[in-house]
Amino acid sequence: MDFGLSDEQKLLEQTLRRYLDEELPITRVRELVAEEPGNDGGHWKDLAELGVAGILVPEEHGGSGLSILDAAVAAESLAWNVAPTPFLGSAVMASVALTTAGSSAQQARWLPRIATGECRIGVAATELTSRREDAGVSERAGRLNGKSLMVLDATGADHFLVPVGQTGESLALVDAGARGLTCERLRTIDRTRGFAELVFDDAEVADWLGERGGAETAVCHMLNAGRIALAADILGASERAIELAVAYAGQREQFGRVIGSFQAVKHMCAEMVAELEPARALLWYAAHALDGQQEDAALMVAHAKAHLSEIGREIVRTATEVHGGVGFTDEQNLHYWFKRVGLDRQLLGGPDQLREQAALLQGWNTA
């Protein structure tokens, strides 16, 4: 049995990387995000035509109807080019939430627009994994009150998906221009993604997904799909960091020799590859479990996100060290991947939190 990617998944990876190399090279990414964090310059529509926006949208609603593993392949390719897109929020988390919790009418209303890139949905879900003392969103008479920090993919979003309550008992879709909603843009270390803080003051709700008070299962599946996408993002960014380090080691001369000929540098590059490759299989299995083996899904997703968060940080740090002092400067492009991995590591749960969750899922006493 072949446990690798299928020919179709390899073709998806090749097509995306070819498009991104031609249309969104790092020089263009730098220009776009200098104007506004998360600015894709209109390329999301082109990626939608390639099937990226609707990768998890069922075929009857205009999407590709593919699997979480296919979405992971796409996320890895997007990270390889640090592409500034709303893939995590719209294509993964919102699509999964609508498919899992939405009624037939809601799916028919929203999913085709997501698949074409017409509708961009930011996701206000970080309070479910880490919460400030004054944050959180509650419902009162059908309207929303409270605050949500670090809203994912806020740049260009025309709607926001908002889990309501302590554990996301309900899921609300809110128009970006809704009465009672204030949106304040945030700056993070990673300019390839746009974040915002939302303040709700009796804010109007455009749509409630499924039954109010019965969305916890859908929210859990949405979070796990997001974690898979983030783990794949770390994988792709780490791959590119290794590639940049090896290329630099083959060009940079010191003491009359390229530094790649030094044993210490060879070991650093080899260790990065040795750390990353086993993680690829772990990610693939976690994505497969989320698609078809729900009893293992939450545990494997927690392990995959936690492990890739840890080794990803070490890989981009080592890649920076291979570059020497210039690795920390804006002269080199490496810092875009370094910062992307740094933010991915903490989004939707850091490694310590996810390992604690994995321990609880296995019945271990962590007290």
Number of domains: 3
Count of beta strands? 10
The third-level CATH topology of the largest domain is: Butyryl-CoA Dehydrogenase, subunit A, domain 3
- Main sheet record: 4 strands, mixed
User: What ranges have pLDDT less than 50 throughout 5 or more consecutive residues?
Assistant: none
* Element-level helix/strand string: HHHHHHEEEEEEEEHEEHHHH
- The H-level CATH homologous superfamily of the largest domain, spelled out, is Butyryl-CoA Dehydrogenase, subunit A, domain 3
CATH hierarchy: architecture of the largest domain: Up-down Bundle
- What is the chains' assembly state? single chain
* Nearest-integer average pLDDT: 92
Strand content: 5-15%
Structural class: alpha+beta
Briefly, what is this?
This protein has 367 residues and is α+β, with helices and mostly antiparallel strands. It contains eleven helices and ten strands.
Characteristics:
Butyryl-Coa Dehydrogenase, subunit A, domain 1; 3 domains; four-stranded mixed beta sheet; Butyryl-CoA Dehydrogenase, subunit A, domain 2; 367 residues; Butyryl-CoA Dehydrogenase, subunit A, domain 3; 14% strand; alpha+beta; 10 strands
Describe this structure in words.
The protein has 367 residues and is of the alpha+beta class. It is 52% helix and 14% strand. The protein has three domains: 7-115, Orthogonal Bundle (Butyryl-Coa Dehydrogenase, subunit A, domain 1), CATH 1.10.540.10; 121-209, Beta Barrel (Butyryl-CoA Dehydrogenase, subunit A, domain 2), CATH 2.40.110; 216-361, Butyryl-CoA Dehydrogenase, subunit A, domain 3 (Up-down Bundle). It contains eleven helices and ten strands. The strands form three sheets. Strands 1-4-5-8 form a four-stranded mixed sheet, covered by helices on one side. The protein has a four-stranded antiparallel sheet with strand order 2-3-7-6, with no helix packed on it. A two-stranded antiparallel ribbon has the order 9-10. Helix 7 packs parallel to helix 9. The protein is globular. The relative contact order is 0.12.
